[in-house]
Every structure is written in structure tokens, then in C-alpha cells.
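Question thread 4412

I'm putting together a teaching handout and wanted feedback from people who do this every day. The idea is simple: show students a protein as raw sequence, then show them the C-alpha cells that encode its fold, then repeat with a second protein so they can compare. Below is the first pair exactly as I plan to print it.
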Amino acid sequence: MIRISEKTLKDLEFDAILNHIAELCNTDYGRSKALQVVPLESEQKLEIALQEVYEYKSSYLNDAKIPNHGFDSINKEIQLLYIENTFLETSNLKKLIAISSTNNELLAFFKANKQLYPILYQTSTKVPFTKEIISLIDAVLDKFGEIKDNASPTLLSLRKQINSVQGKLNGSFGKDLTRYNSFGYLDDIKESVVDNRRVLAVKSMYRRKVKGAIMGNSKTGSIVYIEPEATLQFSRELSNLQYEEREEIVKILKELTNQLRPFSELLQQYQEYLSHIDLVSAKSKYATKLNAVLPKITKSRELTLNEAYHPLLYLSNQNKGEKTFPQTISLDQNNRIIVISGPNAGGKSITLKTIGLLQLMLQSGMLIPVHEYSRMCLFDIILTDIGDNQSIENHLSTYSYRLKNMNYFLRKCNDKTLFLIDEFGTGSDPELGGALAEAFLEVFYERESFGIITTHYANLKMLANELPNMTNANMLFDAKTLEPLFKLYLGEAGSSFTFEVAQKNGIPYSLINKAKKKVKRGKIRFDKSIANLQKERSKLQKTTSILKTKEQKAEEEKDRLEKTNERVQQKLESYQELYDSNQRMIYLGKKIDDLNEKYFNNKKKRELIDEFMKIVQVENSKRKKQSAKQRTIQIEKKKKVVDEVEKKVKVIREKKKKEKKKEKLLEEKKPKVALKIGDRVRMIDGKSIGTIDTLEKGKAVVNYGIFTTNVAVEQLEFVERKKR
């Protein structure tokens, strides 16, 4: 069971990551979910969460883009559905149609593209697909979200009557408008609307001449609004019909709401599912911003981070146009604890936070900004002691607080723990505090916990040097300028450069010298030795890199010359054999030519045969004669050699078959990229890369520059998308 404390999340600024992800969500529900993300408790859930984000991120390369998943919250609508005798208004029903349509579109999409998005499809299968909600609402609402006339026979009849009365009212009003306007009783605006009724805009001096009900007047009092007497009857009749219409609409809406009540839980499920997809989408957008990947998650205890970036620092520096320095660090069974030392402002704390934050992000289902060849295991507990540890609320000093924290570490630490401690042992007397810190560290070591600490204490550096599964490390500094290089170096403790940094910052040499005298001579010599070692190492590294480059070039040149020499030697040997063979043939040819000429002259056949047999015997005497036994032994030797070669070939073929099977399984697990015209592709197990010219019925014409070929799409693998 994975348990990560609130303190660890706070120390590593995990809430800042969640705020970034929440900003990338499309919905309020998704944003609230993003802010509640915590490391997942089970490995199975974590694997699904990581694959979902990985698949969604891969969709940016595919033509089959994941549809919109935005929706308006329907919490109010669901609450009303749970309360008897309530009903949903048309605005509420429109929300239900929208969320049902969005959900159905996503479910249908993942079903159609389950090969591209296998895990997202698997998640979608937990949500039922139904068009019943949409059908029920569509039977009542039109495309504009208004109640249809034919929603019930009564409503249809009422609306016909309303239209009829409205027509009569408009006709009567039109007559009065024309008549009173001809008398000059009306203002320039002629008419207006008061309380949803048409009224005449009568000049105040003529208000007694117009029969009807006064509905109001203008601000200046120059206009009086009068509803003509002839239209009053129609208005009353219309009001009564509209009241009856509203009652019928409420009746229809109540009936529809009762039909929708059984779907309350399903609608809640829709909301949960769409907000989950919104969160997955936000995580994938954040991964894209960070150039994040999914590292290899191992069952064995191993933490190898290559080119790891602190996500918050990376984005902050990116906005400022500054460079961020990645770190490479490795922990395993043979190197469980790393002790980082060296001067302040060198990046020790950032390195510590980078490792902790990336581990938290991964265990919360997020991709992380590391090299794709990084390998990570999962930890049940992550313990941290980073930053300002003074507790004002509990009136604890820094050291008291740290001791309380260490006591918590001792209770929780085991072989599935990752601990991260900044400035280990500080806050008390250096010698006494250092001794206690050493004792704590020995306990963590014995319990086989993984951890990284930063310290200035010499005894902790010495302990890391003595224990086999603990390593010293330091943040590199320029030997001359003492400027930090923000690069971690494993295998050697770092000097604090206390006096060197003081001198660089303008502290008088006499004061530095006085301070040196106050410190034990052995300690100064020890720190100076480390500082000198770091300076020498810096020089050695430069020399080593130059020598390595030269050595590599020399090795390459040597290999090239050896291969050339070997080829020349083989050619010489073959030429020599050819020359010897040719000379022998020439010699035999001359002999036979001489015999031929002799026979031509004397015609003595017997003599010719004797001479020819002598030549044959001489040539045969040069050939080695083998017995039947020797020939059998030689044949068996050849057979053994052939058998051994065949066995080796068979083993190599079987290995290749297994490797191909593994590669196929990995390929099947990876989301497939839908190919399109212009993509750069290659044949599976091929090396040549070409461009797709045309795509039709599962066949593609691939252009390799010199020639084109017609290939089945299944035999092609994606290399690169055409740049636009």
C-alpha cells in the first residue's frame, strides 16, 4: 500500500504541479479533480493512469483526434432528479442532452479506435452507451431547446388558440393605431410595450380622448402609455390561455423528469467519466509542455534518472529564456544512499527536490521530464525533510522540529522507502549533531532504504566512503571562478570551499587567516585536501576527455589500418596462389607443346605415350596421397565443423525470433499511429526510409527517391510526420 504524507507533498511543492494541471482543464469539475490528485495506492491503477496519459499524448500525432470532452456541470440537475415532485426546466434538459451526446460520441470514438487507444477504450467500456436519454428529451424539445407544439394534444390545442387570439389582438390594435395616429394623438414613436403588452404612445394632452387602460407614462410625462379598450378583452383572454399553456408545460416537464429519474446515477457516471478524460487531457498537455515521457517502470529496486529536469524550474526558466541544467542520478541495490556535499548555491537542494517531485508525479499518473531510457521503481513511502523546519505554531526550534521528524522517519523507514533530507544534521552543535545524524544514517542504511541527503558534515562524508552501498557525490564548481556548474558528480565528496568563497566575496585575507587558526588544523587540511582533489579532478576530467577523444580516434585509425592490411594480405595471397597456378600451367603447357612437336616430326606414338605418362607421374607425386581412413577422418572433421556452425546459426536464429516476438509485443502495446500521405515510413525490420505518395484500400505507394514500391499498410512503421 502506497502512503505519501501531506508534509512530503508540501515539501516538494506538489500543489504547484496540480495548479498547473488544473489551469489546463476545460471544465470546472475537471479542475476540482486535478487539485485533488494524490499518488495512487495500487500499482494496477497507476499503470492504467500512466498508459491513459501516454495514449492521449500520442493522439496529437494521429489523424484520429480524440473528440471534444467539454461539458457544463449537471450537479444541480442531478440533485433535482433525486427529489420527488420536482421538474427540470428546458435549460436543464439542454444540459442533459449536451452531456449525453458528448459522452456517447467519446464512447463510440474509442470503440472505433480501440487499436490506437486500448487503455482509454478499456476505461470507456465501464460507462454504458445509451441514446434513451436523448430520445426522451428530443420527443419534447425542439432543436432550439423549446417545448414542441405536439408535446401533448392539449398543448397543441392551446397554442392554436393563443395564435388565433394573438392575431385578433394584433388586428384590433393595428386599427386603433391607424385611427388615433390619423387624429394626431400619438407621439412620434407611436407604440411601445409595457408588461409584455402592446400600448399606444399617446401625447399627454390627448390622454382623455383615447379610450383604454393607462399602463404608465414616460419620465418627462409628455407621453402616456394606453392599452386600447378594444384590445383589453383579447389581452385578458390571451393571459388566461398563456397561464393554461404554462400549466400544461409544467405537466409535460414533470412527466419527462419522472422518466429521466432512473438515469440519475448514469448521468452522474457521465459527469465523472468526462471529468476524468478532462484530467487525462490536462496531464497530457502538461507533459507536452515539459517534453515529458513515460520511463521504464521496473519491478526490481532501481531509480535511474537520465537528464532529469525539475518541472517548475524548467517552465520558469523557459519563460525567462534561461537554460535549465538536467541531472543524472542512479540508485540501486549496490548504491542505495547518496551523500551530496559541497558549497551552497550549487544546486544540491534542487537536485533533491527534482528526484522527489518526479517520483511523486510518476506515482500520481503523470509523465515526467527525463530521458526515455530512464528506469524507475515505485516506493510505498516517500519521506522528506526539506526547507525551513521551524514550527511557530508548536513553539519548536529548528533542531527540535528536525529531531521530531527524524523520529517519524525511524518509525516509517523500511526497504520500500525513499527518504530525502536537506542539510542533514544541522541545527545543533556540529560535532554532537553530526554524531547523531551519523547514527540515524546508519539505521536507514541497515533497513535498506533508498535515500539522498545533502550535508556539510565531514563524518557523514567519511561514513559514505566506508560503507559499500553508500556513495559520496558533489555539485561541480569551476576551480578558478568558483561558479557553480549545476552538475552532479558521483563517487567523491565535495569541499564546502568556505574560505575560498569568503575570499572571492571580498572578505579581508587577514580575517580569513585568523578564522583558519581558530579551527582545528586537521579539519582545515581535510577540507583543503578535498578542495584540491576537486580542482585536480576538474583538470583531470578535461585531460581525460581530450585523451579519450584521441584514443577513440587512434583506435578507429588502428581498426581501419588493420582491416586495410588484412584485405591487402588476402589479395596478395590470392595473387600468389594464382601466379603459382599459372606458372605451373605454363610449364605443363610447354612440356605438352614440346611432346606435340616431337610427335609431329617423328610420328612415334609409343614414345609420345611414355613421355606423357612420365609427366603425369611426376605431377601426381607432388600431390599428397591419403588413405581411406584419413579421408574418413577429414570428412568427419568437416562434418563436425558444419554441425557446429549449424548449431550456432540455429541458436542465433532462435534468439532473433525471441527478440522479434518481444519487439512485436512492445509494438502491439504501443498506440499505433494512423499513417497519412507525406509521412516518412519504413518497412518493418527494414532500414530504408521513404515517403508515402498515395494511400488507398490498405495499400500505400512509398517513394524511396530512386524508385517507388506498392506496400500493404500493415507492413509499414511510422518514422516521422511531414513538417508543415
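The second pair follows. I'd like the answer to focus on this one:
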Amino acid sequence: MKKFFLTIFSLLCIVQLSAQANFKELQEEYAKLGRVLYSISNQYVDTVNLHKLVEKMVINTLHQLDPHSTYISVEDVDASNEPLQGSFDGIGVEFNILNDTLTVVNAMSGGPSELVGIRAGDRIISVDEENIAGIGIKNDRVFKLLRGPKGTKVTLDIQRAGVKELLTFVVTRDKIPIYSVDAIYEIRPGIVFVRLNKFAVTSLNEIRSGLAKLKNKPTAMILDLRSNSGGVFPVAVELADQFFDAGKLLTYTEGANWRQSPEISTNSGFFKEGKLAVLIDEYSASASEIVSGAVQDWDRGVIIGRRSFGKGLVQQLITLPDGSQMRLTVSRYHTPTGRAIQRPYDSEHIDGYYADLYKRLSGGERYHKDSIRFPDSLKYYTLIENREVYGGGGIMPDVFIPLDTSYYSNYYGKLLRLGMIYQFSLQYMDKYRNNFKKTYKDFNSFDNKFEVSDALFNELISYAETKDIAKDEEGIQTSQKQIRRRLKAEFARLLWGVSEYFQVINKEDETVAKAIELMSYE
């Protein structure tokens, strides 16, 4: 009983307590809440699970504050923090559940699974003699079976295409890195392309390591933050710091109970002088907006794409007495010119927050720049060239690139939603992986020489028909080029990795093409 009162007391203290708080009022509210819980526990007509009751109270309290304050149960703490920590203990495979069977997408290079010979396309049938195929297994159960302390062993029975009997592997779990850089390569002579999927504690080291592997020192950088929803705040500041000389304001945070906290650039940047383009879209948020806002306000580079999400609320992670956690909003991010990144919300109608985003995106702003209007009261000016920029939520790019729907069809949408292109690619590689490796000695050879033939394309269409996706001639005609490109990219991913996937995809990406054009201009 005591720990439940402590949990609620912690919540009330964090939300209400400040140097100027009326502590008497806080005590009164705490006493009131304690009396409610005590009465329920000792006088209510039925037996009550106090733990669940208090959790609901915490969840409902946070939900009424703002869109991003959240509660994390004890059971979910590790899983929620893991993507930003940079590693976990496990067997080192990326997987999908296809046709109710756990399928290896990739055995991570140098990881424990690759070391014993597990490879992409393998189907894991049982784990430590427990059957997991055809039983409706979910991701959380997979994690519990495959992850575990470093040094422990797990036995896997695997079905491999072309091999009649099951193959048994004993894998020793190890520390597995979680990568935040999807791709880093020289997209044109002197121009490096960096795609960051999240801001994790390892992000800067990953970027530095990738740059060190390049043959030539880049004179221009394309930083792709599209669909990057954010991550660790200090990493965002650290990445922004890489593009500036010392003494520049990068961002600051401010809240009712939180002093203004400025972040100033140092002299440690590794890319302070080269040309810079930052790519954003409607799903770029939080840390992505801190970096792009600093680059834009100081006229350090060009922002290309579509208006970003508009998440500028700072969450502090607070551990509660029972081991659960809450991410509590304590302040707001601002760009160097003073623009608030957070888009408006009504604390009394939080449920409408994401509905408003849908209205914003469905109202045409992804297709027409003129559909986005800012009042003069939200007008700001950049700090070097005195260009007009606007606040009011999100970062509006310097160069607007509308969403391209010319290739889209309902047929293509079905192929993507149902995973047909990937599933077909996986099945095809089961049969012909060795042939591909013999024909194409490396990715460059594959990229330059391989094209999706009509026969291969038609084989994909026929495969989709066997999965109840009816052939649609009009849809195929509209989306044929995109389907072929996606199929080649999936082959590249399965043969080499995610970086090679993006190297194929980027060849027809209008936003990337515009960045290359601007970075190449003299």
C-alpha cells in the first residue's frame, strides 16, 4: 500500500512543485488523494487491485497534460528505453514473422548468429525445443525467447530452403548494437549522404566511423532526417554542434518550472565549413527539428522537403518508486531565433491532437506549398542573411518538395501493405542467392549491371496473385517503374544490407536529387 502512495506523491510533486509552489495546497491535494485510496482499499464493496487502479490514475493524469507526457509500466521500461541506448543482449538477427513463421531478414555482421552460419531467409522453427512455427507467435514472445544475458546459449532449429532436414544451431548470446545510421556513402564525388533513423547514444560515433571509411574527405553533406521522429536530446545538440564554430546558440529550452537553458556550440565540430543540406518531411520531429532549426536560423545550410511534425516538448524521464517510469514534459524547445518548435495543442482536448495533424496533412500541405499559411505574428528572420522564416509549429523547409504520387496506385499500395515485394524477394533469394553472389562480386557490380527483367517482374505479379492480390493492368502500368526499383532495392538489402537498399532507392528520389543539385552548384 505504501508504494502506491509514494508513486502518486512522486507524480504530484513533479507536476506541481517548484520554487514558488504553494506547498500547503500540495499537501492538501496529497491528503485528499491518499484518503481516496485508503477508503477504496478498506471500505469498497469488492476487492480492488490497487496497482492497476493507481496505474490508471497516473495514465489518465498524464494524458490530460499534453500529447507527449506518458507512463511506462515496469514491464515495458527496458523495451521503451532500449532503442536509444544503442545495444541489447541477444543473438543478432533482424526478423519478420511471415506466414506465421519467424524468418531471418538479416544476420548482423559479426554477430553471434552470423558466426555460427545463420543467414537471411532461414526460418526459425523452434527455440530450445519449443515449437514457435504456426502458432501465431508475436514479437514480444520472440524477444523473450531470443534475448537474454550475454554468454547464455540458445538452441535453434532452422528450416533452410533447399535443405530437407532441420538444421540445429547453438548460439551464444552477446551484446548486439542497435544502429541509428541507415546509410552513409559518397553519393557524388565529394558529396556524402547520411541517413539517420533516430538520435541514439551511438549516433555520433556511427557517423564518425562511416566518414572515416570514405575514400575522400567530403566537401558537402546531405543529412537525411526524413521520418526521424527524434530521440536523445543531448545527441541532437551534439550533432548540431558538428556544423558550427564555437559560440553559436543551437537551441534553448524553457518552461514554467524550468529555467531557460541555452545550448551553445563548441569548437569540436567535424563538418564546420562544407556545404550542407538537411532533408525533412512531415514525420521529422523533436531532435530532427532541433538540428534543422539551428541550421536554418544560422543560414548554415539549406533545408529541403516538407514541413516537419512540430514536436517541441521536452520530456524528463522520471523513475517512480515501483520501478515504472514516466516521461513528463518539463519545457519547450526553441530555435536560435526564438521560434517554438511545438505545434499548438489544447490541453483540454488532447485526443484531437493527432486528428489535427491528419487534417493538416490531408488538407494539401504535402502537395502544395501555398496551402501552408503563416500569420505575420509568427514571422522571424535568420541570423546571418536576414531571411524570413516562420514559427507556429514545425520547421518549414527553404526548398519545398511536394509528395510525388504520380507513380502511386491502389495495386502498388496493396503490394507494400501486404509485404509482397519483400516476401517475393526473400523467396527468390532462397533459390538464387549463390547465383547472385557469383555473378555480382560486389554491390557496385550489382547496381550497375542488374536490372529487373520482364520475366522477373511478371513472376512477382504472379506471386502476388497466389496471395489473393488480383492483377491490375492499370495499376501495374502506373506503378511499374516504382515496383521494379523497390524490387531491386530489396534484393540489395538481402544481399548486402540496408545501406545498399537506400543507394538503390535514392537514385529516383526527387528530394535527394534536389539536394545533389544544390550541393554541386558552384
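Top answer:
Good format. For the second protein you could add a caption like this: The chain has a mean pLDDT of 86. The longest helix spans residues 473-495.
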